[in-house]
Amino acid sequence: MSPLRLDRNEARRIAVRxxxxxxxxxxxxxxxxxxxxxxxxxxxxxxxPSADLVAWSRLGAxxxxxxxxxxxxxxxxxxxxxxxxxxxxxxxxxxxxxVAWPQDERRREWLRANESFRRYVLDLLRDAGPLLSRxxxxxxxxxxxxxxxxNNRNVTQMLEFLVARGEIAISGRVGRQRLWDLAExxxxxxxxxxxxxxxxxxxxERRLRSLGIARASVVGEAGEPAVVxxxxxxxxxxxxxxGGSFAGRTALLSPFDRLVHDRARVLELFGFEYRLEMxxxxxxxxxxxxxxxxxxxxALVGKVDATADRKASVLRVxxxxxxxxxxxxxxxxxxxxxxxxxxxxDLREVEHVRG
Length: 355
What we know:
Distance between the termini: 56 Å
Shape: globular
Helix content: 25-40%
Structural class: alpha+beta
Number of helices: 12
């Protein structure tokens, strides 16, 4: 099959539409997560937690963080697994992978050495769950060795391992702390296990649908091969995303948003240079601690360095970095988005910091 040929603007429109960032907004949170396939959880909340920012940038003021909590903890239409919130309808696509986890011998050996600890945790959750990690005593026989922060964090490691294996699940949260319980009390009974190869194929297809266009290293053989003007090598494109009308809008994005998450892809397709600078010393930051990329129609045009000061009830804008000069229309659209963001955060005003 000869590869499809796309100009860069069409590739950008495909990517924006696929991520539900065009003018046609999704109908609700479940439809949004189903299309995106997941929301990434991250504790950083300089403006708002990333999962909430991603949802707000698509759903607007209709979205409330309580909707995500309700879907995960009460309705069970979404589930949290390894720092991602996914549709419960996709659970079967991950069960075979859970059963086979872990693949590396180091983790297998640690689990074997702590089999009695594993059984104790399962019994404790069965009798008293759901529980916070601090409510689980450390009865490990062999400590988890690491040169990083996980060294000797045996309870946390065991809980993480059991979630990865599908033996336990995250039932909900108390603040930022996870509540752990038996998987059978969180996941629907009788969920069919999709065979590993078929699950991988379907996950690749869903991932490509959510991205519109990506490299084969990300989506395998899903979709069709394509060549994009001004870029090298082959892409994979969702054929259903090609063509059709496009109506854009202006949006402020989370630094973890999947439109910009792959820094090489966003540079190739959009010519947009971006780096998350939370861990960069202040004096060396170019754009800010938690700079929000600015999307305008099918172009990424700048970054907004902002923080939410909840005590003062202010969305504080430290800088607006213009990758291209903002004309009056674009400047007004960005101002309106900042006002909308402040309103959604229930902050009194937007304050632009001088100098």
